[in-house]
């Protein structure tokens, strides 16, 4: 993979600024990877256990930061919205402390090509069934934030607010506001919801995601530390994991997918739930087994979850045999062939959906060829999950 080791003057200026702010950087440097964008490269051989980056708490941007707190933005809006509003309000100030950092952030044009949130409606409609609810939730959250905060924003700044809202969505770290003498956040930090615990972290946002780790990120009252968990050769990209997320989640939330993702899975709800009778839905609901049916890869083979097996068993066998299955009593092997056939029919239906989606996307490519190609790739990944590629 071709690597540009100095991705631009703005990155050189930002790294210099970050070091002046107290960010400690060891053995890694920003780089541009062909076909992938920005990331961090090992500037020399790295041993497991080396601390690569330390970011002091004083340079984070959080709702506990003085400049954000002083705006007194309404607490009914989300933390994401308030941070986006702060960045929008001070954007015209050339003296803002994070100006050099902001120069390294992706542009709105880049977001428009990779984030489903920004795609044309006709292409959003071709997202896989697991990604659509994620996008719908994002859109509702954004609309609420803008409604709650628009009176605090400069005139005609919605486009800028949307841009910074996406910056927050794609670049924040989890920050649980460790106790300090100056902290103004609730003393019972364990009661904070995860969506309240957000921080923009200079230099840390260069790290790209991998499904199997590569570095550990820890926090305490002093800030963030990133420590390697494996050896890297000079020139290798250095990663850490954002968590065990499917490619639909990564696409919807961050605008990328992994070609090989250990955690990949897809929802089967849209294929199973509509075929259940009202009575069957009531039974599954009573057993807390209605919905959340998933397909993933287990031991290199397509596998459906226990909830899926329970629903298919209820749909294809006598209810008492379903009851024995969920209770863990009796011999369920006599129904296995019937359930296996139901799984195969399910896979056939999903494979047909994949083929139809890819065919439709070929007709929609036009000026949105990159987006259409991303969607085709995702449908092909689902075919691979089905074992039909």
UniProtKB/TrEMBL annotation:
PROSITE patterns linked to this entry: SET
Annotated InterPro entries: SET_dom, SET_dom_sf, SETD3_SETD6_MTase, SETD4_SET
Pfam families: SET (PF00856)
Domain SET span(s) in chain numbering: 21-243
SUPFAM superfamilies the UniProt entry points to: SET domain
Entry GO MF terms: protein-lysine N-methyltransferase activity
Superkingdom in the source lineage: Eukaryota
Protein name: SET domain-containing protein
Species name: Pseudovirgaria hyperparasitica
